[in-house]
Amino acid sequence: MASSVDIKEVKGTRVFLFCFSSGCFICVFALLIHKVCLQVTVEGVNGGSVVLPCSSTQHDLKLQDVSVHWRHNNSEIVYDIIKGGDVVSVQNPRYKNRAETFPDEYLRGNFSIKLNNLQHTDGGTFSCLITPSNEQETIQLNIKGL
Questions:
Q1: Which residues have CB under 8 Å from 132's CB, separation 6+?
Q2: CA 38 to CA 19: how far, in whole Å?
Q3: Are 122 and 58 contained in the same domain?
Q4: Cα–Cα distance between 21 and 133 in angstroms, integer?
Q5: Domain shared by 10 and 80, yes or no
Q6: Which residue intervals define the domain Ig-like in the entry (predicted)?
Q7: What is the number of alpha carbons within 13 Å of residue 86 lying toward its C-beta?
Q8: In what order do the strands lie in the sheet with 13-20?
Q9: Is the peptide bond before 132 cis (omega within 30 degrees of 0)?
Q10: pLDDT per residue over 88-143, tens digit each?
């Protein structure tokens, strides 16, 4: 029984054509080539500060097209950056005057935030979603101390 496999990539989709003596079968596997998902762990101390990392792999960023959404435990709005500007009007009050960004770094693709005056309730999962490139970083923040 002779067989062959032909693989072609068309716009991020891989098509596998399996041919056997009895016929051919086509399997399609979609790949999200531009989606990047990283997970890191950061440790902080009660009352201290940490930088939660978030950066884009895109080298030709146009800030007017970029949105960055920081969330805590998938629900609380920590910080939003829309078209290169900070949007804190919808920010959860727990993060008011405690979360800050580094605007001079935006063009380099660095959208990290610094979280000050850490509290035990800050422990958990933070996520940073960069659109339209659909890059996401997940940070597990562990708080130590009294």
A1: 65, 66, 67
A2: 37
A3: yes
A4: 43
A5: no
A6: 47-140
A7: 15
A8: 3-10, 13-20, 23-30
A9: yes
A10: 999 999 999 999 999 999 999 999 999 999 999 999 999 999 999 899 999 999 99
State how far the Cα of 18 lies from the Cα of 141, in Å rounded to an integer: 46
> In this structure, are 24 and 50 located in the same domain?
no
What is the pTM assigned to this prediction? 0.73
**Strand ranges in the chain using DSSP code E only, listed in sequence order:** 3-10, 13-20, 23-30, 37-45, 50-52, 67-72, 76-82, 85-87, 99-101, 113-115, 124-131, 135-144
Say if residue 17 is in the same domain as residue 76.
Answer: no
Tens of pLDDT along 34-72? 444 558 999 999 999 999 999 999 878 899 999 999 999
Same domain, 113 and 48: yes
Q: Count the domains in the chain.
A: 2
Give the three-class secondary structure for 120: helix
∠ CA 80-61-133, rounded to 5°: 65
Please give the angle made by the CA atoms of 122, 125 and 131, to the nearest 5 degrees: 115
What residues make up the domain containing 82?
Answer: 37-144
CA distance 46 to 41: 16
DSSP 8-state assignment for residue 98? T
